Task: structure prediction
Amino acid sequence: MAPVKCGVCGRPTNLICKDCKSAAYCSKHCQVRDNALHERICEKMTVALNNLDDEHPPDEPDVTYKLGMRFDKDEPDKDMPQMIWVETVEESDTSKAISQYSDWIGGGDVRKDFFYTFHDRTIQLSTDSGKFPEENSGISQLIRGGRYSNLRNGAYPHRLRSSVVIMGVEQMTNDNRVAEYRDMTANDLRVALKCFLEDTYIFEVGGNNTENPFVALKQPEWCQAVKINNLAELHQQIPSSQFQTVLLNKKHAEIGTYEYKSVISEIIGIPLLLKRLPCTLKRKTTEEFEPNNAALSLLFGTDRIDPAKKPASGNSEYEEEDNLSFLVFREDQENLKRQQVEAMCIYGRFQKVLRRSQAKKIDEGYRSWIDAKPLGLKKPVSTEWSGRGVKRARESSPSVNKSSVEDEMGEDALKSDKEVAGAAGLLREHSLNMNTEEALNIDGDPEPEMWVPGSGHSR
Result:
């Protein structure tokens, strides 16, 4: 048997699934990673291949039938892929093949074809999108937890809505047309999933979101980032967490469209980029329209974006940039941990309070200087006409109450001393050269202990 490529990592292998004999893996590790996805197709693939004599339509000179896959939005078992036999017609004069399956996708006139290649396996996806395509729950289950690049429809690509038929492609012509089709295999479902995720750049793996079992997220193109939830999303998180771990597709073009670079993070030595994420939840209370102060503290000292460049949306509340959630990721695309972002937010809040306190004291000093009196004067300055000139009376300076001066130094700044000490401790704990495998903590490994500011203890 000629070697085939592993469906997960692409390495050559001769190991195949003992049941369907249609999925190849190079190791037990890759088989386990693909298990959840493979279970959706293994039994149906086995039935289709074992019943070729009964199910396969007879071929003709220019017509052959190839095994295809369908995600039908109208089937009772619509959440699972279906195996179908699709008629293909070979046109000898044009050296191309045409698949005839308009009936499989609803019989509509608007057919769109897409091609995608992964590990040297090419597939063709066809859909009758129409004007207002409906959601395909089978596909949306496979890519749940992701966020699509237009920031409005979750991870669900508009082009793959409605019913979808997938065909295996054996050979393409020079003008990117199909020269020959092939039967689908179980490994092609992984190729299809990669196509479904082509426009997805974020996967939320913390808070309410459990890890998507179908997506192999621990691949080189994914890095760990942090989402700072606004109050609307924070109130619906179980457990409640404003700082949420997410995984970021480093190869996606959306990452290059960041909106802010945190000045504070540059000072500390971990340059962070920020991008606003529109809130897709219905806001229930006035409080949920309040600014996202945690994210704004990270932007202290940073030039804000031109309001004309805000992302368009259908709801006016999304235009308020301060109350949105924010995506935070490292400029060097290395892994970023929640504790690092929390520590820098604390540092940013301290700097903001300190700057406000300094400005207040300067303003108070300026106003007191206007009314300042020379030291040693016993009485208020007065003028008396004596015929020869002005006579001044001395007035002693008022007594200074030390406790009152301390009260005026700024209560907010004094309270922030412990917070900034905690921030420094956290930043020392999480060094810049953080181990990648240690940071990518999506398998349920316990998070490192977090130092509570000012307490000297971990929690």
Summary: The chain has a mean pLDDT of 72.
